[in-house]
Amino acid sequence: MRREGNFLGKLFRHLFYIHLLLITILVIFLTVCGVLTAARNRHFHPEKWYILVLSSTACAGVLGFSWQALTGFNPSRTLKATFWLSPLLTCAFGILLVSIGTPGSLAASVIALIFSILQSLYACWVNPRFEHSSRILKASIAYNPLKVKTSVVLSIIASTLYSCILMAGIGGAAATRTMVDTLFIILILGSLTWTTQIIKNMMQVTVAHIKYMQFTCGIEVDFKAVVKTAAKYSMGNICFGSILIPVLTVIRGSARAVSLVSGDVDEFMFSCANCCSGVASRIVAYGNRWALVHVGVYNKGIVQASMDTWEMFKRAGMEKLIDSDLTSSFCFLSGVAAGSVCALLGGTWALVIHKNYATEVCIYAFLTGYLTNRVAMAWVQASIMAYYVAYAENPQSQQFGTAIPAYMQELQRSQV
Q: How far, in Å, CA of 150 to CA of 145, rounded?
């Protein structure tokens, strides 16, 4: 049974379409102004700026194709390689930013280098979980219809083209560099982030629907019908969830970090640790990525779907399993790694062609590389989400094998 989307869903669907119209007008305006200004402004060289940024954006698309193809071909090795390559690539990105030497690049380099260290420590910490996570990843993506693979290709192309169009608008704003143009650049980057997040979540909703029906009923549903249904009934919730879930994820991650750092210490500075732990546990119930399965299958609102899926995980005793899941970290780190590769390509080339553009080219290249790769890996994350949700609904089913039960038993033994 399906119902019409809720008020928030309809509101955010209309906001998204209005935003697309306005951002298109803004990009056309900025691009035209940039072309006219470049003829009079000797400090801006559009032929150099555009070749640097657009080549990095094209690289993002190539990496998106490559990473998802490698995951499908050999999921276990790709997962392990990603956890070890991502810190190295992020560190190389940080070193490049240091070599550029501008205040902005030095500030960004500090963040990149610290993040690379944290990734290395995390990879060492979760190393014992690689085997079980690889088994779950392999089982969840074992079968994907040809139409799903085709949709992955189309989504990567759409993300790459949209990124190129918005980069053209940013180039127009970069030609004049006024305070208003800086605001326009921020708005364009916000649009890029939200739109690619919606493309990613649209892919996750449709693929998760297909995989969920395979896992629970053993049937293959019509791909076109799933896409039409998602576009008609779930688009608003996808737009809302594309803002809600990342925000709540950041808040939850920060709260869990405070609790982890505090441990059992009772000093004043850690007096809010218990409060942060409670906030983290509550937030996940109101916005989580697994909810996208129920959004697609049952057309639930994103908040209701989040609460239902989390209650289902609790009944199945899967809270610790979900918290320790590495497959979502794998998809995230693959995006960071791809972003770093794009930034290294664009930034190094900028140092050779025009050093003044190096900092901004690095930042834009990293962002487009990260976002495009997250779109490319959406089918992987959707398959895993559907696998977990289907198992939580019927843990006694024999078709899931022993991957999840074995993982849960190991987690229970480690806590004794």
A: 9
CB 67 within 8 A of CB 373: yes
CA 311 – CA 303 distance, rounded (Å): 12
**What is the C-alpha to C-alpha distance for residues 79 and 87, in angstroms, rounded to an integer?**
14
The pTM (predicted TM-score) of the whole model is 0.92
**φ, ψ at 76 (rounded to 5°):** -65, -50
- Mean pLDDT is lowest, of 108-112, 258-262, 385-389, for 258-262
Phi, psi of 219 (to 5 degrees): -120, 155
> Which residue type occupies 157?
I
Angle between helices 302-315 and 235-262 (to 10 degrees): 50
Per residue in 59-78, pLDDT (tens digit) is: 999 999 999 999 989 999 99
- The answer to whether 357 and 107 are in contact (CB under 8 A) is no
Query: If we measure between CA atoms, which residue out of 73, 72, 119 comes closest to residue 93?
Result: 119
Give the H or E element holding residue 333: helix 327-353
The answer to whether the beta carbons of residues 176 and 348 sit under 8 Å apart is no
Q: Is the pLDDT assigned to residue 185 strictly greater than 70?
A: yes
